Every structure is written in structure tokens, then in C-alpha cells.
Amino acid sequence: MPEVIVLGLGSMGSAAAYTLAARGLDVVGVDRFTPPHERGAHAGGTRIIRMTYAEGAAYVPLLRRTYQLWAELERATGVRLVTPTGGLNLGRPDSPTVSGALTSAREHGLAYELLDADAIRRRFPQFHPAEDEVAVLDTAAGFLTPEIAISTILGLAERAGATLRFGTAAVSYSETLAGVSVSLADGSRLEAERLIVAPGGWAPGLLGALPLRVERRVQHFWRPGPGFAPAEFPAWIWEAGGLTAYGVPAYEGQVKAAFHAPPRPETVDADAGAEPPRPDEELPVRDWLRPRLPGLADAPYAGGKQCLYTLTPDENFVIGPVSDRVTVAAGFSGHGFKFVPVVGEILADLATDAVPPFDLALFSPSRFR
């Protein structure tokens, strides 16, 4: 009987399986698909990584560790996973995007610069902020390549001895006198001493006690002229016009820009998957960009990519035990991918009764009771 089963081998589950196997544990990972794929939150080529974290200063200790772990993965494999670009958090000074980034930077002594509108335009002429807007420049920011990262981590997990079962859907799980039992869609069962559940968009079905919702998101890509390469154009998050948008410099010839939350969110079922981009669905994004990043707004559209966000009511993660034998990782709310290796490390700790060196109260599953 294996020591640990990992349900879900996408972002967090792949890292948990690798960390456990690298520590010498007998681990079996299960996924209904073969990650990376287009049915989760990780699709789309790039994800922002940043340190001055507007979502809360409590994330910064995890960020420091996750930067270290991404670097270790790159050294171990020779695969480039992180591209440094710097990053801007833009908006009015009292906006959560700006004030939250400043709070995290000041509490933790992070490297940053506070730029007024004139300084933004001088340093980054692609941006056209309003006179009352500012930006927090995060010198540590950049972007990750999620599909490459997941493939790399799963390869490391197999080489470390993990057994990975793809095309195998889990229906339910239960605890037994000896450990845990997982029922699979083909009628078979898996048993182990411990269980990690990292199911992405399938979390509402497997973790029904948690108030999770799954929403469709669409990322949009553009082909602008010069000036948008990583060396000259930063990753960015901008709160303006009642919306928060984000963008990533050119990767494989395309620049990403999209809304973090669209004006009319769409709840979806993970089994059905997110509907592909619809004709002209990029037009609201283009209209939002036009006064702010006109060089991008006027660029040819290169297409869109759908993905699923699994959200919690407070948009903070769920990481922690739900019983003595079961640990969950879910509800990463559209800002989790940068944390993949540190979450994998935390899950491995929790599944083996080690104490993670972080305050995880913000992420406790019991906060919703």
C-alpha cells in the first residue's frame, strides 16, 4: 500500500507528488487527464510571478520560498521556467492593487519603487496613466511558463519514483481504519495511509463542504509592434475603470492582456469545461486598453485561451488538513500558480506530519465553518 495518494496532478498536485517522491515516500498520483491540459487553471502559456503582493503581506514568506524553489528546479533540469521582467501594480494610491502592494513591500522590506504618473510615462512609455495614478514597481516580478513547468515537475516526480496514473478519474474518497480509500471511475479502488486532494475545478464535487465556485476566464493575446519584449515591457496589474486587468510581455511573439474578473462572471461545471473564446469577446478588453496601453489596444488580435478559476469567497487559498489523513489544496482564485513549488512542499509536510515553516492560518479550510 502506498504511503500517499495525490488526487490531481496539475499545478499543486504535480509539485506535491514530486516533493514526496524526492523525499523517498511511496506516492501514487491520479489525474483524469494528462497534465498539462486545457481544462484547468494553468492553460495559457504564461503566468505572472511577483513579490510585492497586493493580495496580502501574509503571502510574502511563501513567495520568498517559492522563488528559491523555482530557481532550484531550473538548476536541476536546465529548463528556463522564470523570465524576469519587473512588474507594475498600477492604479490610484488608495486602490487595493497599489496600497496592498505597498503594504506587503513595507512590512517585509522588499525592493520596490513608487512611481508617479510622469515617472511611469518616462520609464515605460507604453503606459498612459491618468495624472492621479501611480505604480509600484516590483523589481523581482516576471513570468512563468505553466505548461512547461508542469511537464518538467511531473518528469522529475517520475524519475524520483512516483507512480503517476493519467486518464484515471477519482469519484470519491473515504477514510478507513488503515488510512484512506479512493474510488475511481472505472470501479477500482486505491488505498494509502494519507491523501492529498488537489483537484482544481473538480474541487466542488470532491470537497463539497467548502464554499468553492468555478468560473470561466478568457486570456487574450495581441501582436503589437516593437516595445513589448520582456527587456522593455514589464508584467503589470492595473486597477482602473472599475476593473482589474493584467498583462504579460511578449512570449512566442504574443503579448497577453486580459481582465482578472470580467464584468459578468460565468459559473461553469468542470466536467463540461470552459467554453472557448467567442467572436469579438476581446473587444471590452481592447476598449479598456485603448486609453491606457494604446500600442497594445491597436495591435492585431492573436486569439484567446479559456481557463477555469476555482474561487473561494475571500479569494485566499485553501491549504490544510480536513482530517487526520486528508489534506486539501484548492480555491487558488486565479493567483496561485506562482506558488506551485512551495505549496507542493507544504502539502508534503502536512501529509507526513511535518510542521511547515509558515503561518497557514489565512488558508485554513476551517475558516468557512
Summarize the structure.
Pfam families: DAO. Helices cover 25% and strands 29% of the residues. It contains nine helices and 21 strands.
How would you characterize the overall build of this protein?
The chain is 25% helix and 29% strand. A hairpin with a 2-residue loop joins strand 16 and strand 17 (254-259). It has two domains: 4-44 and 147-208 and 314-368, FAD/NAD(P)-binding domain, CATH 3.50.50.60; 83-144 and 213-311, 2-Layer Sandwich (D-Amino Acid Oxidase, Chain A, domain 2), CATH 3.30.9. Strands 5, 6, 7, 14, 15, 16, 17, 18 and 19 form a nine-stranded mixed beta sheet that branches. It has 369 residues and is α+β, with helices and mostly antiparallel strands. Helix 1 (11-22) packs parallel to helix 5 (146-159). The protein is globular and about 65 Å long. InterPro entries: FAD-dep_OxRdtase, FAD/NAD-bd_sf, MTOX.
Shape: globular
Radius of gyration: 20 Å
Instruction: State the separation between the terminal residues, measured CA to CA.
Output: 33 Å
Fraction of helical residues: 10-25%
How many structural units, i.e. domains?
2
| Tally of individual helices | 9
Strand content: 25-35%
CATH topology of the largest domain: D-Amino Acid Oxidase, Chain A, domain 2
> In CATH, what is the class of the largest domain?
Alpha Beta
Q: Mean of residue pLDDT?
A: 97
Low-confidence spans: none
Number of strands: 21
Summing up helix and strand content along with how strands pair, one would put the structural category as alpha+beta
Cofactor: FAD
Domain FAD dependent oxidoreductase: 4-350
Protein name: N-methyl-L-tryptophan oxidase
Organism: Hamadaea flava
